[in-house]
Amino acid sequence: MANVIDVAVIGAGLSGLQAALDIHNAGHSVIILEARDRVGGKTRSVQRLDGKGMQEIGAAWVNDTNQFHVWDYCQRFGLTPVVQNINGSVACEDADGTCHLFPFGEMPRFQKAEIYNIVDIRDFVEATCLNPKTFMEPHRAALDSLTFEQWLRDAGAGTRAIQTATLWCRGTSGQDPGEISALAFLEVARGGLGIINLRYDGKDGGQHLRIREGTQSISNGIAKLLPSSCIKLSCPIASVTQTMPQLYSVTSTIGFTVKTRKVIISIPSPAYKDIQFDPPLPHQRQIYTTSTRYGCFVKFICLFKAPFWRSQGACGLAQSFRGPVNHCRDTSVDADENYALTCFLCSEQGRRWLALNSSDRRDAVLYQLGSLFGVGYDVVRFEFIGSMTSEWPQDRWAGWGCPFPVTPPGVIGGYGDGQLAMEKCDGLYFVGTEFTDEWRGYMEGALRSGKRGAAQALQDLRM
Q1: How far is residue 436's CA from residue 449's CA, in Å, rounded to a whole number?
Q2: Which cofactors are named for this entry (predicted)?
Q3: CATH 2.60.40.10 correct for 110-199
Q4: Residue (of 311, 367, 361) closest to 339 by Cα position
Q5: Do residues 260 and 248 lie in contact, with contact meaning Cβ atoms separated by under 8 Å?
């Protein structure tokens, strides 16, 4: 059939780029249609105004052991890993504003009974998420009928354990444990090889390495492996219409139309509402798409003259039960004199922070950092030289959020384990970091999902 592309990919994030590359390498024609004026999706690396290196507005962390796809690209493109700093103490802020430091790898200085309860609940979550039976019936539907918070309380979680789990939940999805299903959280924890590894900043953990050149270099590098003619930017999609059993028409808002045999959809599910599907997506997929949602998840990156927190014996990792910052990490690159703390504003605390004007937002964070690291506002303000803020809550093409959408109770229990990630609709295939059971929400998960979607499409093209 003349002028028909084998596969059209909607979205040039990591999952879309990987899918397109696999299609291209298999000898099939492919085109990527991207709404933004750049590739990379939720990888967004921005150079500091003073030229001292890059900071990550979007995805930031990788590791070199169990995230083999993303690490392979880091090596292939000659990118420079930066080991996440874990030398020193972690800062902790209680709900009343009391702060203290404790050694990395140990527990905060709470009462013994509280620590025992936190450890018991953490180990319970760990064992449950690593047990394959958890995700099979009859457990699957039962877990999806409860919020993560209710499930924890039923397991005996006390106040401190709930506060700790709230930190996990907010740091993972920007939502509170009372907003998402227990099954949804446990699936995320399983994908990171357990809740301990998911949260860990050391070797093998989810936050072990950063990339000096910026993670968007990975997206840019993959794009360069494709013919430039197969990537069309600034091309938002308006409709996907099945015109024949093996033929689709994909039309953009600017009037550009592609005829294609298969369509790989590589955008977050909250952005599906911007596309008219004819015929409509299957009913169960529509229920998922309309139910899944983002929390509030904002990065506020503070740039400093010097890493003042290290003089206090702190590694830069901090957590707070009070807010507005839920947690922060040292995202410095010392070789570039690029000293920074990346602060995460999440859930209701993040929404209240966003309602402030810009100077009040800045001061709220700087006051909190002064308390967390025991130096006071004046020291932090003196060292502060500027900030960078993520724009994902205002990003239409991301579906107005980050890092990935999560479901409340009663949505995914009807799917079998892995079904949502594997499900297709005739010649439509759904990929992205939310559609994977491995490293969901991470770059590695996006790449694995893209490879899976490409394999499905290639198999069907051979039929």
Answers
A1: 6
A2: FAD
A3: no
A4: 311
A5: yes
Residues 63-111 pLDDT 10s: 999 999 999 999 999 999 999 999 999 999 999 999 999 999 999 999 9
Give pLDDT tens digits for 278-328. 999 999 999 999 999 999 999 999 999 999 999 999 999 999 999 999 999
Cite the residue boundaries of each domain of the chain with CATH code 1.10.405.10.
110-199
Helix (H, G, I), strand (E, B) or coil at 170: helix
* Residue 244 identity: M
First to last CA, the chain: 16
User: 166 exposed, middle or buried (CB, 10 Å; 0-12, 13-18, 19+)?
Assistant: buried
Q: Do residues 77 and 411 touch, judged by C-beta distance below 8 A?
A: no
Residue 438 near residue 429 (C-beta atoms within 8 A): no
Instruction: Find out whether 106 is annotated in a ligand binding site.
Output: no
Q: Which CATH superfamily is domain 5-42+216-293+404-462 in?
A: FAD/NAD(P)-binding domain (3.50.50.60)
Q: Is 291 exposed, middle or buried (0-12, 13-18, 19+ CB in 10 A)?
A: middle
Enumerate the CATH 3.50.50.60 domain ranges in the chain, comma separated: 5-42+216-293+404-462
Give the right CATH number for 44-86+295-397 from 2.60.40.3140, 3.90.1150.10, 3.90.660.10, 1.10.10.10: 3.90.660.10
Q: Dump the DSSP string for 231-291.
A: EE-S--EEEEEEEETTEEEEEETTS-EEEEEEEEE-S-GGGGGGSEEESPPPHHHHHHHHH
The reply to whether 15 sits in an annotated binding site is yes
The annotation status of 434 as a binding-site residue, yes or no, is yes
Looking at the chain, the number of H-run helices and the number of E-run strands are: 15, 20
Q: Tell me the average pLDDT across 360-389.
A: 98
Q: Determine the Cα–Cα distance for residues 439 and 447; give it in Å rounded to an integer.
A: 10
Give the pairing type, strands 325-330 and 339-346: antiparallel
- Nearest Cα neighbor of 11 from 270, 302, 194 is 270
Q: Is 177 helix (H, G, I), strand (E, B) or coil?
A: coil
- C-beta separation of 5 from 260 below 8 A: yes
Start-end ranges of CATH 3.90.660.10 in the chain? 44-86+295-397
